[in-house]
TrEMBL record, chain A:
PANTHER family the UniProt entry points to: OLIGOPEPTIDE TRANSPORT SYSTEM PERMEASE PROTEIN
Family designation: Belongs to the binding-protein-dependent transport system permease family.
Keywords from the UniProt entry: Membrane, Transmembrane, Transmembrane helix, Transport
Name of the protein described by the UniProt record: Peptide/nickel transport system permease protein
Naturally occurring in which organism (per UniProt): Paracoccus lutimaris
TrEMBL record, chain B:
Localisation: Cell membrane
Pfam families per the UniProt record, alphabetical: BPD_transp_1
Topology of this chain in the membrane: Multi-pass membrane protein
Descriptive protein name: Peptide/nickel transport system permease protein
Organism expressing this protein natively: Paracoccus lutimaris
BP GO terms, sorted: transmembrane transport
Regions that span the bilayer: 47-68, 113-135, 142-162, 168-185, 229-248, 287-306
Amino acid sequence: MNYLIGLLRHVFMLLAVIWAAATLNFFLPQLAPKNPITEKLTVLGETSGISSAQIVELTAALNERFGLDRPIWERYLDYLGDIARFDFGQSISNYPARVSDLIAQAIPWTIGLMVSTTIISFVIGTLIGAWAAWRRDSVLLQAVSSMLMVFSAIPFYLIGLVLIYVFAVRLGWFPISGGYSIFSIPAPTWEFAREVLHHSVLPALSITIASIGIWAVGMRGMMVTVQGEDYMTFARARGLTNRRMFLNYGVRNAILPQVTALALFFGQIVTGAVLVEAVFGYPGMGLLLLSSITLFDYPTIYGIVFILIVTIAVSMLAVELIYPLLDPRVRR
Amino acid sequence: MTRIPDPAPIASPSPPRVEVIAREAPRGSAAARILAIARYLRRNPQLVLGVLLLGGLLAFSLIGRLFIEAGMAQPLVGPASLPPGAEHPLGTDPQGRDILAVMVYGSWLTLRMGFLAGLIGMAAGSALGFVAGYYGGWTDRIITWLVDVLLTVPAILFLVIISAMLSTALTSFGMAMIIALLAWRRPARQVRSQILVMRNAGYVEMARLSGASVPSIIFREIAPNLMPFLISSFIIAVAAAILAGIGLEAMGLGPQNEPTLGMTIYWIMKFSAFLLGMWWILPPVLLLIILFVALYLINAGLDELANPRLRKRG
């Protein structure tokens, strides 16, 4: 029962976040002093010989066409309805294309990159952190974990730039940019899959290198705390194997805050990945966002930002729901 | 003392306690205090290294200004895409800006932006945190709810929208203000939870009973005890502000007419510098990496200073 109430509270919170994001998305541009239609028409008036009376007339016609003459609350409700159906209108830079279609094309790339790097760095980082706390006499482990922690302070894309310089420009082992070769057409063949993999090594590596440390720090701290617990002393007294104590007693208990941290770090990972994609010319949401920014394609910008916020909110909700399964104490 | 400090202080054998050091020298004398500080710093190489790196960066920028005119960082001061040479020690980029000058003036702009945004965010956040934590009740509930909702929203995405709207009119000072808009959230939450603990401490209770006013309790009783914590969260706020600012600039949303480091990253991508085998990508990237590492080390060192319990973990 409590679980159900908690679930409802989380879903409510999720909706509140999404609503707040959508509302800000709607009202922020309204606050801007510039009206896109008048701007456009003024430029037109200067270059061609349209009189100012015609401009006023045109403005009124276009305002009606785009529904800008209606009261703001009416437009706001319409907008919320559109958003609920993930309809963000048409892109300006790729005009007839719908924003939702552009996003649908880009999103698998981003999700593939993000999910794989998150899993890899979470597992490796957690293990290194746990191990570094367990074997505090190992100089090598301490050095490696401290170095990874320093790396975690560096944004993904800066590491990415260094990796490109070393491995793509200097050594030429990996392609400099892109999600696949410009000469090939996406197709479900092994050939193409291998190429995609080859192109994703450096972007994935730059995210992984920078985020392993985040998990290692947290795990090391928790593991040290857990080691001081009475049940660890008891486990040792019972003569359990080192391996069993490490995994079933140490890691099992120390990993819980890590899972919570996973939810909090999602936002950071997403925003970091946006720039990684931009740096690597990787055809995901980040690159789409960047090109929309440079071309002032507002519908696409708002669409992407909205989708990213929803993704983050949903993944946080997912973590909240998984948590009770991992920690029996929360279930009661 | 020239050896590079061990990056893993946690691994070092358990260090002597503070009390022991204090007993060795006569208490109170200035020399003893300096000695104690020096000894402490030896045990906290992260803090020393971090401060040295940040200081070096600041010195590079401040001393560099004396030798290089600001105009050198503007486009068209030299031929485009020049390799390093006598006239331009680090060469020029495709816009004909002198890379060394961009580094000197850009690092100053970046540091100033981070400091300003961090300071404003920290001040506003602590004020809200103080109010929420101290008064409790509905004030607390509303502020906490607001912070919680806003914290789930990734700041940079909103900053993208705001700066995209303002793009052409943006200065690096304006950037700092935009980033400060969201920089108060984390300090507000952290300060609030600290106040909640301290509100009921004996000495605060005592001050309240002896009729001290709220500002007096906040500034004379609570704030001094929170100092190490406040400094540490200030450093975190500065690092976060720089991270956000450089991120926005790298997306091409920074001030267009100032030689910021983030915009240099943006030009790297814009001009496909890698494809053309240009080498000017490295200086800004390395400079930023040093900056982030320095802030990380300072923060880790301050953490150790503020939470002596961490030391025992060694």
